[in-house]
Amino acid sequence: MNPPTGATPLIxxxxxxxDTETTGLDTTTARIVQIGxxxxxxxxxxxxxxxxxxxxxxxxxxxxxxxxxGITDPMVKGAPKFAVAADTLKDYIAGRIVIGHSIGFDLTVxxxxxxxxxxxxxxxxxxxxxxxxxxxxxxxxxxxxxxxATWLGISITGRHSALGDAxxxxxxxxxxxxxxxxxxxxxxxxxxxxxxxxxAELESGDRxxxxxxxxxxxIPAFQVVDPFAxxxxxxxxxxxxxxxxxxxxxxxxxxxxxxxRRISTAFVSDAGQPGRPLAEYGIVxxxxxMRQIAAGGDSALDLTVGEFASRPLVSxxxxxxxxxxxxxMDRMNIRHLAVHDERGNLTGIVxxxxxxxxxxxxxxxxxxxxxxxxxxxxxxAAWATLPAVARALVAEDIDARIISEIVSEELCAVTRRAAVxxxxxxxxxxxxxxxxxYAVLVLGSGGRGESLLAADQDNAIVxxxxxxxxxxxxxxxxxxxxxxxxxxxxxxPYCKGGVMAKTPEFRGSLEVWKVRVAxxxxxxxxxxxxxxxxxxxMRAVHGDTALSDALFDHACDLGHAEPSFAKMLGESIVRGExxxxxxxxxxxxxxxxxxxxxxxxIVAAARTLAIRHDxxxxxxxxxxxxxxxxxxxxxxxxxxxxxxxxxxxxxxLSQQTADLNEGIPVSNRIETGKLDHATRARLKSxxxxxxxxxxxxxxxxxxxPQTEASISP
Length: 713
Description:
By secondary structure, this protein is α/β, with parallel strands linked by helices. The protein folds into four domains: 10-207, Ribonuclease H-like superfamily/Ribonuclease H (Nucleotidyltransferase, domain 5); 227-363, CBS-domain; 371-556, Beta Polymerase, domain 2 (2-Layer Sandwich); 592-711, Four Helix Bundle (Hemerythrin (Met), subunit A) (Up-down Bundle), CATH 1.20.120. Residues 358-362 and 707-713 have low confidence and may be disordered.
């Protein structure tokens, strides 16, 4: 269980709802007579092992108090003292968020009891369902536990018992999560900020002597990460070509081959050749052979390896970062991974031995939980680990473009998993399996590999055949709806512009897409240009990649063949003014929009010139480098865009990780007032340089690529 941060979604919050019954309501003198606690995981309440403790207060229980909670002196005789009960409660909470109704009272009593028992006390991070309900319904006349439960349609059993009230608080929190989500309160920090805004409620508790019921969001301490795992791809460390033996080979011969090659693993297939689809292969290790010998003696060496090879292969993309391989090996408890290319063909192998160069003391942090996530809460929990890692990588001076690639990898992974879960939901609902091959595409910054932490959904579906409104289209419309809902619950919000596969304009058969793209290219209406901004950045994350490859190549062919289209794209790069008349940054509420004034000109220029000059890279860096290789543009201009791109991404990532943990809505704007003098000066210089992007694009639109002969002296 990862420790919660401000960025942890409420749906993925590991928490404990608690309640105490006491000898009275004066927190300075009240003694605890009962503790109840219920553990829960976001919207999935877990109460199969609740905590229900009677506590000996060490003094008589007033009759008036007993009339409320029903606990009398004979009932607590022989019960543990507070010090023992407190240790049990501490173990039960185990670093999770504490939730309750009017939780400030319970926390204050626990603090005073701890001091009397000479025990160390540290207030846990907490949320109050009373305040959360008030934030949602400011006009609710009664914020008692009973009134909130009635509003939400919850029946309370065991009222005025610690366990009954704790369970009621847990059920109320579960019911509040979707309502808070609809109001844009999705994370722990955002919930804390919403509660802290209720000054009248907080002041009432303060007058009663209660501790503050929620914590003030803060940026957590830096995590330790190993830069190697985030700088390098699996292709950098894998063994290639992989050793493949025929299924008919005898075990003794394969062992001989392993010894001669100094390897411990070989792939097995009927063809005995690498480079084919993963489904054709099994894997056999030295340990597998030894197990066969242990079970059958020397005769096991006469077995063919096809008889005991393990299938199916556990694999990973060659383009994946090393942290993903480490996480997968750890999750699957294996020592080898098959490596495949983008088309799913076997291309290499990576082993635990290959990864020994990693520092053993450094954490990887981003695990492989997304691969097996079975519900939105699990998707959200995995996605929520990303901001802390991004912040640590910024501190390690990792190139911001690499960090944004990692964010994009996770965005693509969560979209891929959402598609798998959506397919399962379609089957469970009786809608059947996919009616034809299809691919889920991530568009925009995610497709370019340049996502930041303010990412929303930009996705599409291309399927093999079917007309708009036909049976196939309707099936994929329902799939797209489920994908969008799952992603939104996981913390990747709906696209406000409707760029989602559930929207008719962003799904269709390959032929429908081809007609659609041709219409965009040849007519170039303003809305078409907006679609192009994200469409040409597509990346397939699930399904048949051949469909997406065919669509991308078709779009590039059309775009390159229509010079007027690229010209129109270039003219749409509007030069914004990032400075005031006095030369200061153009702020909105103390922040400047770096996407509008910085990233957009660079990204749009790279895309436009890449389409015009047929550079088929999807990322901004690859496009700019491709232009340089063609001799398009002067080194000074292109290199300044490359360095400026990385610098702007770094500033935005730093701001976004801080905002997430402080409960501030994540955006593309940064607070320049917190930058040091040198950084502010560099930012001004970069933005001034980018003022000339439209003119440079116009000058390069019809530039002629230079061959080596033409540019040699």
